[in-house]
Amino acid sequence: MRKKLLLAAAMLGFMAAKAQDQVSDAAADNDTIGPWTKKGNASLLFNQSTFDNWLAGGENNISGSVGLNYDINYKKGPWSWDNKFIASYGLVKTRNSSFAKKTDDKLEINSVLGKKATERWYYSAFLNFKTQFTKGYNYSTDENGAEIREEYTNILSPGYLLVGPGMMYKKDDNFKINLSPATSKITFVDKNFTLPDEAYFGVKEGESMRYELGFNASAYYKLDVIANVTFENILNLYSNYLEDPQNVDIDYQLNIVMKINRYLTTNVSFQTIYDDNAFKGFQIRQVFGVAVNYGF
Question: Where would one find the signal peptide in this protein (predicted)?
Protein backbone atom coordinates (compact mmCIF):
# COMPACT_ATOMS: atom_id res chain seq x y z
CA MET A 1 0.00 0.00 0.00
CA ARG A 2 2.89 2.34 0.72
CA LYS A 3 4.05 1.89 -2.87
CA LYS A 4 0.59 2.79 -4.13
CA LEU A 5 0.50 5.96 -2.06
CA LEU A 6 3.99 6.93 -3.22
CA LEU A 7 2.96 6.33 -6.83
CA ALA A 8 -0.16 8.47 -6.44
CA ALA A 9 1.81 11.24 -4.71
CA ALA A 10 4.43 11.16 -7.45
CA MET A 11 1.74 11.48 -10.13
CA LEU A 12 0.24 14.49 -8.36
CA GLY A 13 3.66 16.05 -7.97
CA PHE A 14 4.47 15.50 -11.64
CA MET A 15 1.22 17.08 -12.75
CA ALA A 16 1.73 20.05 -10.43
CA ALA A 17 5.26 20.63 -11.70
CA LYS A 18 4.23 20.39 -15.33
CA ALA A 19 1.28 22.71 -14.80
CA GLN A 20 3.64 25.55 -13.87
CA ASP A 21 4.81 25.57 -17.48
CA GLN A 22 1.35 26.03 -18.95
CA VAL A 23 0.01 29.48 -19.87
CA SER A 24 -3.71 30.02 -19.38
CA ASP A 25 -5.92 32.21 -21.51
CA ALA A 26 -9.07 31.39 -19.54
CA ALA A 27 -9.53 34.87 -18.05
CA ALA A 28 -9.27 36.54 -21.44
CA ASP A 29 -11.73 34.07 -22.93
CA ASN A 30 -14.27 34.71 -20.18
CA ASP A 31 -14.06 38.45 -20.82
CA THR A 32 -15.16 37.94 -24.40
CA ILE A 33 -17.62 35.05 -24.26
CA GLY A 34 -19.22 35.49 -20.84
CA PRO A 35 -19.09 33.37 -17.70
CA TRP A 36 -20.00 30.04 -19.34
CA THR A 37 -17.62 27.94 -21.40
CA LYS A 38 -18.79 24.76 -23.09
CA LYS A 39 -16.77 22.27 -25.08
CA GLY A 40 -16.94 18.60 -25.84
CA ASN A 41 -16.26 15.77 -28.20
CA ALA A 42 -18.31 12.80 -29.43
CA SER A 43 -16.50 9.86 -31.01
CA LEU A 44 -17.31 6.64 -32.86
CA LEU A 45 -14.89 3.72 -33.19
CA PHE A 46 -15.69 0.78 -35.50
CA ASN A 47 -13.80 -2.38 -36.40
CA GLN A 48 -14.61 -5.46 -38.49
CA SER A 49 -12.51 -8.53 -39.32
CA THR A 50 -13.52 -11.43 -41.57
CA PHE A 51 -11.60 -14.60 -42.46
CA ASP A 52 -12.25 -17.24 -45.14
CA ASN A 53 -9.85 -20.16 -45.54
CA TRP A 54 -7.23 -18.07 -43.77
CA LEU A 55 -4.52 -20.57 -42.85
CA ALA A 56 -2.92 -18.32 -40.25
CA GLY A 57 -6.16 -18.45 -38.27
CA GLY A 58 -8.61 -15.84 -37.11
CA GLU A 59 -12.15 -15.36 -35.91
CA ASN A 60 -14.75 -13.17 -37.60
CA ASN A 61 -15.71 -10.27 -35.41
CA ILE A 62 -17.34 -6.90 -35.43
CA SER A 63 -16.97 -4.24 -32.75
CA GLY A 64 -17.75 -0.62 -32.14
CA SER A 65 -17.94 1.96 -29.39
CA VAL A 66 -19.27 5.46 -28.89
CA GLY A 67 -18.00 8.04 -26.45
CA LEU A 68 -18.81 11.49 -25.11
CA ASN A 69 -16.53 13.84 -23.18
CA TYR A 70 -18.20 17.17 -22.41
CA ASP A 71 -17.32 20.13 -20.15
CA ILE A 72 -19.58 22.91 -18.92
CA ASN A 73 -17.73 25.46 -16.79
CA TYR A 74 -18.79 28.70 -15.13
CA LYS A 75 -16.58 31.48 -13.82
CA LYS A 76 -17.66 34.91 -12.66
CA GLY A 77 -16.21 37.02 -9.87
CA PRO A 78 -15.16 34.78 -6.98
CA TRP A 79 -17.30 31.85 -8.14
CA SER A 80 -16.25 28.85 -10.19
CA TRP A 81 -18.38 25.84 -11.17
CA ASP A 82 -16.78 23.06 -13.23
CA ASN A 83 -18.77 20.16 -14.67
CA LYS A 84 -17.52 17.21 -16.72
CA PHE A 85 -19.62 14.44 -18.28
CA ILE A 86 -17.97 11.25 -19.52
CA ALA A 87 -19.94 8.47 -21.20
CA SER A 88 -18.86 5.52 -23.31
CA TYR A 89 -20.32 2.24 -24.53
CA GLY A 90 -18.89 -0.49 -26.72
CA LEU A 91 -19.73 -4.00 -27.94
CA VAL A 92 -17.91 -6.81 -29.72
CA LYS A 93 -19.45 -9.89 -31.40
CA THR A 94 -17.31 -12.80 -32.52
CA ARG A 95 -18.40 -15.72 -34.66
CA ASN A 96 -17.83 -18.38 -32.01
CA SER A 97 -19.47 -16.51 -29.15
CA SER A 98 -23.17 -16.85 -28.39
CA PHE A 99 -23.40 -13.31 -27.07
CA ALA A 100 -22.33 -9.81 -27.92
CA LYS A 101 -20.01 -8.68 -25.11
CA LYS A 102 -19.27 -5.25 -23.76
CA THR A 103 -15.90 -3.66 -24.36
CA ASP A 104 -16.82 -0.45 -22.55
CA ASP A 105 -19.69 0.80 -20.40
CA LYS A 106 -19.33 3.94 -18.32
CA LEU A 107 -21.25 6.98 -17.16
CA GLU A 108 -19.46 9.50 -14.95
CA ILE A 109 -20.41 13.00 -13.77
CA ASN A 110 -17.99 15.32 -11.97
CA SER A 111 -19.03 18.68 -10.52
CA VAL A 112 -17.03 21.09 -8.35
CA LEU A 113 -18.40 24.40 -7.03
CA GLY A 114 -15.79 26.82 -5.74
CA LYS A 115 -15.62 30.26 -4.12
CA LYS A 116 -12.26 32.03 -4.35
CA ALA A 117 -10.25 32.21 -1.13
CA THR A 118 -6.92 33.36 -2.59
CA GLU A 119 -5.60 33.88 -6.10
CA ARG A 120 -5.71 30.17 -6.96
CA TRP A 121 -7.32 28.47 -3.95
CA TYR A 122 -11.08 28.03 -3.60
CA TYR A 123 -13.44 26.81 -0.92
CA SER A 124 -15.14 23.93 -2.68
CA ALA A 125 -17.96 21.42 -2.67
CA PHE A 126 -17.73 18.48 -5.06
CA LEU A 127 -19.87 15.68 -6.42
CA ASN A 128 -18.78 12.58 -8.31
CA PHE A 129 -21.21 9.98 -9.65
CA LYS A 130 -20.37 6.77 -11.51
CA THR A 131 -22.38 3.88 -12.87
CA GLN A 132 -22.95 1.91 -16.10
CA PHE A 133 -25.67 1.81 -18.75
CA THR A 134 -26.57 -1.86 -19.21
CA LYS A 135 -26.29 -5.28 -17.61
CA GLY A 136 -22.91 -6.93 -17.09
CA TYR A 137 -22.38 -10.70 -17.05
CA ASN A 138 -20.05 -13.42 -15.84
CA TYR A 139 -19.41 -15.92 -18.63
CA SER A 140 -18.78 -19.66 -18.36
CA THR A 141 -19.57 -22.92 -20.19
CA ASP A 142 -21.96 -25.73 -19.29
CA GLU A 143 -21.20 -29.44 -19.26
CA ASN A 144 -21.77 -29.57 -23.03
CA GLY A 145 -19.32 -26.76 -23.71
CA ALA A 146 -22.04 -24.23 -24.55
CA GLU A 147 -21.42 -20.67 -23.46
CA ILE A 148 -23.67 -19.39 -20.70
CA ARG A 149 -23.83 -16.10 -18.83
CA GLU A 150 -25.05 -14.92 -15.45
CA GLU A 151 -26.12 -11.34 -14.76
CA TYR A 152 -23.77 -9.68 -12.26
CA THR A 153 -24.11 -5.89 -12.63
CA ASN A 154 -26.59 -3.37 -13.99
CA ILE A 155 -27.27 0.36 -14.05
CA LEU A 156 -26.98 1.63 -10.44
CA SER A 157 -25.70 -1.77 -9.39
CA PRO A 158 -23.15 -0.67 -8.60
CA GLY A 159 -23.53 3.09 -8.55
CA TYR A 160 -21.13 5.35 -6.66
CA LEU A 161 -21.86 8.80 -5.26
CA LEU A 162 -19.20 10.92 -3.54
CA VAL A 163 -19.95 14.36 -2.07
CA GLY A 164 -18.05 16.59 0.30
CA PRO A 165 -16.63 20.04 1.16
CA GLY A 166 -12.98 20.94 0.80
CA MET A 167 -10.41 23.15 -0.86
CA MET A 168 -9.56 23.35 -4.57
CA TYR A 169 -6.37 24.56 -6.23
CA LYS A 170 -7.19 25.78 -9.73
CA LYS A 171 -4.61 27.24 -12.08
CA ASP A 172 -7.00 27.13 -15.05
CA ASP A 173 -9.55 24.81 -16.64
CA ASN A 174 -6.74 22.42 -17.60
CA PHE A 175 -5.19 21.96 -14.16
CA LYS A 176 -6.96 21.62 -10.82
CA ILE A 177 -6.71 19.64 -7.59
CA ASN A 178 -9.54 19.20 -5.09
CA LEU A 179 -8.98 17.99 -1.51
CA SER A 180 -12.00 16.95 0.59
CA PRO A 181 -11.24 15.64 4.12
CA ALA A 182 -14.91 14.85 4.93
CA THR A 183 -16.24 12.99 1.90
CA SER A 184 -19.34 10.83 2.07
CA LYS A 185 -19.26 7.86 -0.30
CA ILE A 186 -22.44 5.90 -0.99
CA THR A 187 -22.41 2.64 -2.95
CA PHE A 188 -25.76 1.61 -4.45
CA VAL A 189 -26.55 -1.97 -5.54
CA ASP A 190 -29.50 -4.21 -6.32
CA LYS A 191 -29.99 -6.14 -3.08
CA ASN A 192 -30.97 -9.23 -5.10
CA PHE A 193 -27.33 -9.47 -6.23
CA THR A 194 -25.69 -9.13 -2.81
CA LEU A 195 -23.47 -11.94 -1.56
CA PRO A 196 -22.27 -13.24 1.81
CA ASP A 197 -19.26 -11.64 3.51
CA GLU A 198 -19.88 -8.32 1.72
CA ALA A 199 -18.48 -9.83 -1.48
CA TYR A 200 -20.68 -7.68 -3.71
CA PHE A 201 -18.91 -4.30 -3.82
CA GLY A 202 -18.68 -4.20 -0.02
CA VAL A 203 -22.47 -4.14 0.51
CA LYS A 204 -23.85 -6.50 3.14
CA GLU A 205 -26.08 -9.36 2.01
CA GLY A 206 -29.72 -8.31 1.69
CA GLU A 207 -28.93 -4.58 1.73
CA SER A 208 -28.86 -2.08 -1.12
CA MET A 209 -26.46 0.61 0.13
CA ARG A 210 -23.07 1.05 1.79
CA TYR A 211 -22.01 4.30 3.47
CA GLU A 212 -18.42 5.43 3.96
CA LEU A 213 -16.83 8.60 5.34
CA GLY A 214 -13.30 9.45 4.33
CA PHE A 215 -10.74 11.62 2.58
CA ASN A 216 -10.92 12.25 -1.16
CA ALA A 217 -8.29 13.79 -3.42
CA SER A 218 -8.89 14.39 -7.11
CA ALA A 219 -6.71 15.93 -9.80
CA TYR A 220 -7.31 16.91 -13.42
CA TYR A 221 -4.53 17.80 -15.84
CA LYS A 222 -4.85 18.26 -19.60
CA LEU A 223 -1.94 19.26 -21.80
CA ASP A 224 -0.88 19.42 -25.42
CA VAL A 225 2.26 17.30 -25.61
CA ILE A 226 3.04 18.21 -29.22
CA ALA A 227 0.97 19.70 -32.03
CA ASN A 228 -2.39 17.89 -32.35
CA VAL A 229 -1.66 15.45 -29.48
CA THR A 230 -3.56 15.94 -26.23
CA PHE A 231 -3.15 14.07 -22.94
CA GLU A 232 -6.00 14.19 -20.41
CA ASN A 233 -5.23 12.84 -16.90
CA ILE A 234 -7.95 12.22 -14.29
CA LEU A 235 -6.96 10.87 -10.86
CA ASN A 236 -9.16 10.11 -7.84
CA LEU A 237 -8.00 8.78 -4.47
CA TYR A 238 -10.24 7.82 -1.55
CA SER A 239 -9.53 6.53 1.97
CA ASN A 240 -12.37 5.30 4.20
CA TYR A 241 -11.95 6.46 7.81
CA LEU A 242 -14.49 3.92 9.07
CA GLU A 243 -12.80 0.77 7.77
CA ASP A 244 -9.25 -0.05 6.64
CA PRO A 245 -8.15 3.55 5.93
CA GLN A 246 -4.81 2.24 4.67
CA ASN A 247 -6.59 0.63 1.69
CA VAL A 248 -6.74 3.65 -0.59
CA ASP A 249 -9.11 3.40 -3.57
CA ILE A 250 -7.42 4.54 -6.79
CA ASP A 251 -9.08 5.49 -10.08
CA TYR A 252 -6.77 6.83 -12.79
CA GLN A 253 -7.79 7.62 -16.38
CA LEU A 254 -5.57 8.65 -19.27
CA ASN A 255 -7.19 9.77 -22.53
CA ILE A 256 -4.87 10.47 -25.46
CA VAL A 257 -6.22 12.08 -28.62
CA MET A 258 -3.98 12.33 -31.70
CA LYS A 259 -5.69 14.51 -34.29
CA ILE A 260 -5.44 13.41 -37.93
CA ASN A 261 -7.79 16.01 -39.39
CA ARG A 262 -10.95 17.81 -38.38
CA TYR A 263 -13.01 14.64 -38.06
CA LEU A 264 -10.53 11.77 -37.63
CA THR A 265 -8.40 11.05 -34.59
CA THR A 266 -6.45 8.19 -33.09
CA ASN A 267 -7.77 7.64 -29.57
CA VAL A 268 -6.07 5.80 -26.74
CA SER A 269 -7.87 5.31 -23.42
CA PHE A 270 -6.34 3.70 -20.35
CA GLN A 271 -7.99 3.28 -16.96
CA THR A 272 -6.91 1.44 -13.84
CA ILE A 273 -8.98 1.03 -10.68
CA TYR A 274 -8.04 -0.34 -7.28
CA ASP A 275 -11.00 -0.89 -4.95
CA ASP A 276 -10.69 -3.89 -2.66
CA ASN A 277 -14.44 -3.89 -2.00
CA ALA A 278 -15.01 -4.66 -5.68
CA PHE A 279 -11.93 -6.74 -6.57
CA LYS A 280 -8.75 -7.72 -4.69
CA GLY A 281 -6.37 -6.26 -7.25
CA PHE A 282 -6.09 -3.74 -10.07
CA GLN A 283 -8.79 -3.52 -12.72
CA ILE A 284 -7.38 -2.38 -16.06
CA ARG A 285 -9.15 -1.18 -19.21
CA GLN A 286 -7.49 -0.18 -22.49
CA VAL A 287 -9.12 1.03 -25.72
CA PHE A 288 -7.24 1.95 -28.90
CA GLY A 289 -8.60 2.87 -32.32
CA VAL A 290 -9.17 5.38 -35.05
CA ALA A 291 -12.30 7.39 -34.34
CA VAL A 292 -14.68 9.64 -36.18
CA ASN A 293 -15.05 12.72 -33.98
CA TYR A 294 -17.40 15.65 -33.74
CA GLY A 295 -16.42 18.59 -31.58
CA PHE A 296 -19.02 20.96 -30.15
Answer: 1-19
